[in-house]
Design goal:
single chain; 218 residues; alpha+beta; ECO RV Endonuclease, Chain A; two-stranded antiparallel ribbon; 7 strands
């Protein structure tokens, strides 16, 4: 077991996004061809939808605790804009046929000829230059990617008003086919596992309903 773990932990960086998607889902990532008029038109419609979504979100404002939490709100706005620009758009169906919002990607779009998957990303204007993780891909036994398709990241840079509302100030569409990923192994345990019979534990409790004065510095 130790040897197997050591082999797993040897660096595999970088891993191309296209290779990872095909290995995890069996589907190919299509590379955008800027010399193909049909694909250029497809991207032009995506750009128009992204601009419309940003304009609407700026007009209405987004109420969220943090900039990255605004992604859930703007996702619905993006889907609506995509539909208005001629796309069939919505939450992807997994291989099993069920719909799942969690995990990559957020949106599947189809124009009658081509399919694309889109992940929406919102971030703060103040942190745009920080080296924070901006993309996350996790394996699943029931993947949301079921088509050979283009893959795009649609990002929205936000600023916060004095009233706490977030407003888009910039948007962008980035092709993911040529993205390089870093592979991170992680060990974890579900909550009940440390509580199995036979494992030593120490616990404590306080009587419910009884409260004493707050602690103060000595």
């Amino acid at each position: 077991m130790t040897e197997r773990l050591e082999a797993m932990l040897r660096p595999l960086d970088p891993v191309s996004f296209s290779t990872a998607i095909e290995a995890l889902t069996g589907r190919k990532v299509l590379a955008f061809d800027p010399d193909n008029p049909d694909e250029v038109g497809f991207l032009a419609n995506l750009k128009a939808a992204a601009g419309a979504a940003a304009s609407r979100a700026r007009s209405e404002g987004i109420v969220a605790g943090r900039p990255n939490e605004a992604g859930n709100a703007i996702e619905a706005v993006v889907i609506d804009a995509l539909k208005k620009h001629g796309f069939a758009a919505g939450t992807p169906r997994c291989r099993s046929g069920r719909m799942r919002s969690a995990g990559y990607p957020d949106i599947r779009v189809y124009d009658g000829h081509r399919t694309a998957y889109i992940d929406c990303k919102t971030y703060s204007k103040r942190t745009k230059d920080q080296t924070l993780r901006t993309f996350y891909l996790s394996p699943s036994s029931d993947p949301k990617i079921t088509d050979d398709a283009f893959h795009f990241l649609m990002s929205f840079e936000l600023e916060q008003t004095d009233s706490g509302v977030f407003l888009p100030v910039r948007w962008g569409i980035y092709e993911l086919a040529r993205l390089n990923l870093h592979l991170k192994f992680e060990f974890n345990a579900s909550k009940p596992e440390p509580l199995h019979e036979g494992l030593p534990s120490c616990v404590g409790s306080f009587p419910v309903g009884r409260q004493r004065g707050a602690l103060t510095p000595g």
